[in-house]
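request received
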Amino acid sequence: MTLNLKNIVESLLFVAEGPLTVKFIKNILSESDIQEIRNALQELQDEYEARQGGFYLREVAGGYQFCTCPEYKEWIQRMKKPHSTRLSKAALETLAIIAYKQPLIRSDIEHIRGVDCGGILHMLLERKLIRVLGRKEIPGRPLIYATTKEFLELFDLKDLKDLPTPKEIEDLTPSTAEQLDENAFKNLKISAGKVEKSA
Amino acid sequence: MIIDECYKIRLENIFEGPMDLLVYLITKNEINIYDIPIALITDQYLEYLKWMKSMDVDLAGDFIVMAATLVHIKSKMLLPIHGDEEPEEDPRQEITRPLLEYLQMKSAAEFLAERNFLGADTFVRNFAEEDYPIDKGNEMIRVGLFELIQAFQKIFAQMSEQHRVDLTTDAISIKDKISELVDILEKKGSVGLDELYSKNAGNSEIIITFLAILEMAKLCIISMFQQVQTGDIRLLYL
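response:
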């Protein structure tokens, strides 16, 4: 029997409980090299995409995972009891600020949003979308927050670099784009650079 | 006229904070964000505050701070600039910059809102416990402080005598210990309390680990469970 790397990788993905990283697969398949594994994953991704089935192989949170196509959510929701509730606008705003400006402390978030964020932060911590990295050595020793792997999984993001740069976001939403000029874009690029560094 | 318009808007919009209100006023008046007519915005802003007071809305301090900022900018703009003084930057920058940043983050939030949301739009195979019958032997219960102390004493009793008196300081800090524990928990998800102590750990390390665990529980980073049969305590990463 010849060793079919692609099938082995596929079987691993099938039983995995979360996204599998290339490194993790490599640990199991120590006899194969990393490029072969990458190729197998790419082939699988292509195959599932060509097949146009009910699920596909998504690249998320630094790994690979099977997930259903959004087109079929209605029927899946009928079968399963809902367990993942969507986030409020305020929670999404807070999460967006943490994702882009991390690592940061609570007052940084409140400075941008202009309102108290204590309750939202607690909820986000409870849902494991953010985590505490430590304390900042300034008076009051406030907690330092950052996003988690679960955050990437929840929003179907490959990694933090997968977040659009603020400039790209402005292009997506023409309503606010009109109000911005080149000067603003300059600032946006700076903050985008920050995100990449911390990613 | 403002009064009429206010009435209409208030029905459909609840402003979460002063920034929200400011963004709303700017969009409503179709204002260029780089050339905010401070007098107009300040007037409308104060009008809203008055209304909110009259409606017995518990006015958060944040709203008042923003009002003060607006008035401050307005007064700065009224001051004449003398010839020999350095031309200062537009005082309105004080409000333009945070507004731009806020708008940016609002757009980022919209981006997130449109993503395929796991558990609502897309689903993954899950191995959640409700899908499988619970094994009574592995059932976990929540433990409190005293069980934790007891478990701690047990570990203490196992320590060899030579480590009992150890006055050297300069051990690692609780903060470092927390990040060390978070790293372990991130990898494993949950970990037994015993696993966190090496057999030859010194007193200070035991205490720091213990304090780190308490701190983490307080911060809701972990929760603690005790196995019904064995009495082992496990820490679960949240």
